[in-house]
Design brief:
2 copies of one chain form a homodimer. By secondary structure, the first copy, chain A, is mainly α. The first copy, chain A, is built from 20 helices and 3 strands. Chain A has a 3-stranded mixed β-sheet with strand order 1-3-2, with helices on both faces. Chains A and B meet through helix 1, helix 2 and strand 1 of A and helix 1, helix 2 and strand 1 of B.
């Protein structure tokens, strides 16, 4: 009886969240320019109602009634209820004034960040980032004690992981990455990516990308593809999953790998168990596990040599002139060039993590008060030089390149690298379960791969913690070893060492 | 202070309504096929919350507090508050079980109607229509006493109008229409519309239609155009108004006049006063007044000879081969053919009203219990024969042609004809205010027309009753005379009598 009451609350909260997601998708794809203010009011009303239904007396009573029953509930229901209670407990601890102030500051800070980036002047953004950090420190203080204050922020994106766990893993990952880069250095000429920057008809690019993600297993009957300024995936339940990509005439990677990445997110959402619909478990387990799915398809599968055995003839049929001088092998090398660069989003799968590690260290120390906002540009540049051997010429290309801090997304960055580590561990587990997986990929037979991911990850939605998922699949704890092995083997193939 | 509380409630209710409208638009344009169930749950949650916030104790308290202050409130605020109170009073009278049962039956009835239409068998639809009518009779009984029970249903679509007012007007309209048709009969050969059914490239059709509605004054910065199975206009506030149309290769009218019609609705929404945003007045005054705006642009303006003086060269530039043998005059005649036909939506602006009048009479008598559902096919066919001289060969082409009754839209049909009567009265008022309006149209100068409509109708949104609007603009009560004069003059021009 009590669980039914809780379920009704979960349905309301989830339906409202999905409605808000439709409005968000619309805003990025089709909404007319002049509609921004009205849309922000509609969204503010929806999110305020979500907060209300999540934390009001009815929710408190339902949670209190269900808590004593948890031990005797069927496993799956118990997990769902626990996720709601988790969200509820966090939400009720935060005063409404703090949440409102954070949302107000976030909208000002995003604007200031844009202006600062355009002017390449960190000082324009600094006061609002300062305020953002102060509010995050307050948020942490409401959430109670923890080994490291940053753990309480990380918990929103990667529940169960902590600074104590991540720091040594990231340290070893940096060492391994640096060692691998040193091996690549003398062989850089082996990978030439000029071919990616020829002229490619934009609508043909989109056609090819759509065909490929459908072949991988993204279901267009319960999903669709549109264009937007930045690629994203959003879901309004497992039966309505929307991907977007962007197309650049002179960069063949942008549309294709952008869409494969988002389709990885999308297949995760499409595979979530029907019984979880309209609950807080009708979503991915965490940002990192979600990212493991997008990276699994984008990098592990679609940047592999086996994949291009199947895909290259298809791509060349679409662009016969531009790809006339290419082979599956030369193309595989072109899309796997690994070299330090200034920009996170343009970097390759190896050096990407160095960008993440420096951001993690800065935000971890900011929250703890070890460093202050004013120190960021200097520390950023020092860390860039130390880990990537590059010093940004200005703030725009340096510490202002990412939007995340401006919307208060402190604690978010580690998910990207965790996704890479999870994906490599998942890949090793899949190879054990399906020894001929590489041959299947080369034949374009992706259905068993998707089935394995669905069986082992997707169907669970958000009923387990990331640590539980990884343990269940691999029998091991999170490690950087699988990723370093995987990327090392790929680098060796590309650069011939 | 009390008004501020009421305002907050109005904002919540309006924002939720607009969010639901976004979801509805998405469903008709881009939503994947497989998402129907999830979407209906999201929409059910939103409409149930709207009902809750409209009728709960907080709303009752706010209404009770504001009522004594109405007399001393500024006019515009008072009008807005009165509209909310109107909606509130109606909503609180209806038991939640009735509303839920109506919504449940509506979804079953729509399905039954589709099956009945496909099978051309009224008996498949009859039991659910019977239930729909019973629920409507119950609804009326909750809403209190009235001269005619139908008045309480009509009130939702055309507040302020009653059976007593409409019946004699519609009777005279039928007589006038029949007389006009008798004059046209010997001259039918004058209007040949074969040209409309040649082959027209669909994307060029859409381009031309978009250009024309922008020229008329539909603002794409705060609006957009998409395709859907049936054309519609929806608004999420004055700064986000969406039109759809459909395109048929062999019917030049479908896309162009469909879009102009919807743009008439859309310009109304775009012109609503900013101060009314997020209130129950941020919409058209009634279905009939809304229809007067769409018909004003579609028929009064865009089917006029003056309009085609300007538009025909543009259309011929887009379709030089297909229109080589046409002149502005021959094209004007082709799009104004007037002759009895079986189908409401395919009929011309003169005979259209005969379709409406028979529907009005049937639903009026159904609600009053004068006739029963089982009588409908017979009565329909008798009335078709009497007023249009045609007997439908089967139910699909006869009494099953419209969706309205299946979703419970009883009381809706009169709005279509009222829109035509209003539009003709508005046109006469505009000609007094702007004596050279015909010359302006011929020059393609539509801005002053839109400005006049905005000044006199649009900016008021839903702050006045339809009767008040017409009285303010024309100084007169609703009449069929203006429409009969207008359509008589056009028929005379087309058929040369």
């Amino acid at each position: 009886m009590s669980y039914d009451t809780l379920k009704k609350i979960m349905h309301t909260v989830t339906d409202l969240g999905q409605a808000a997601a439709v409005l968000g998708w619309d805003q990025e794809t089709y909404m007319p320019d002049g509609a921004v203010i009205g849309r922000s009011e509609q969204l503010a009303t929806l999110s305020s109602l979500i907060h209300t239904f999540m934390t009001n007396d009815a929710a408190k009573a339902a949670v209190a009634a269900v808590k004593p029953q948890l031990a005797t509930m069927p496993e799956r229901e118990r997990r769902v209820a626990e996720m709601f209670i988790r969200d509820h407990d966090r939400a009720v601890q935060l005063p409404a004034e703090l949440v409102e102030e954070q949302s107000r500051v976030a909208s000002l800070a995003q604007d200031a960040w844009k202006r600062a980036k355009d002017a390449s002047d960190f000082s324009i953004f600094a006061p609002l980032l300062q305020r953002t950090v102060e509010l995050k420190r307050q948020e942490v203080s409401y959430l109670g004690a923890c080994a490291h204050p940053y753990d309480l922020l990380l918990d929103q994106y990667e529940p169960g992981l902590t600074v104590d766990v991540i720091t040594p893993i990231f340290d070893r990952l940096r060492v391994g990455t640096t060692a691998l880069l040193a091996k690549i250095q003398p062989n850089l000429a082996q990978a030439n990516d000029d071919v990616l920057h020829r002229s490619y008809d934009t609508s043909t690019q989109l056609d090819v990308a759509r065909e490929i993600v459908q072949a991988l297993g993204f279901d267009m009957h319960i999903g669709r593809v549109d264009l937007s300024a930045h690629p994203f995936c959003t879901s309004f339940g497992a039966t309505d999953v929307r991907l977007t990509t962007r197309i650049r005439e002179n960069d063949l990677r942008s549309c294709l790998f952008g869409l494969i990445h988002e389709a990885g997110h999308g297949m995760y959402e499409q595979g979530i168990g029907e019984d979880l619909a309209r609950t807080p478990s009708a979503q991915g387990a965490s940002m990192g596990i979600h990212e493991s799915q997008s990276l699994f398809w984008e990098n592990v599968i679609a940047r592999s040599e086996a994949f291009w055995t199947w895909a290259f003839p298809r791509l060349r049929a679409a662009f016969p002139t531009q790809l006339a001088d290419q082979t599956a092998e030369s193309f595989f090398k072109a899309i796997n060039k690994m070299a330090p660069s200034m920009n996170r989003v343009e970097s390759d799968e190896l050096t990407y993590n160095l960008h993440i590690i420096l951001r993690f260290e800065i935000e971890r120390d900011l929250v703890a008060g070890v460093i202050e906002v004013a120190d960021i540009p200097r520390i950023w540049n020092e860390k860039m030089q130390a880990s990537l051997g590059i010093t940004p010429p200005n703030d725009a290309e340096g510490c202002l390149q990412d939007v995340h801090w401006s919307f208060g997304g402190i604690g978010y960055f580690p998910s990207y690298t965790l996704g890479k580590l999870y994906a490599a561990m998942e890949w090793n587990a899949l190879k054990v379960a399906m020894p001929d997986v590489t041959e299947q990929i080369a034949r374009g037979n992706f259905a068993p791969i998707r089935a394995w991911l669905r069986e082992n990850i997707h169907q669970y939605g958000r009923t387990e913690l990331p640590t539980e998922i990884i343990k269940r699949i691999t029998g091991r704890e999170l490690t950087e070893v699988d990723f370093l092995d995987y990327v090392g083997a790929r680098a060796a193939r590309v650069y011939g060492f």
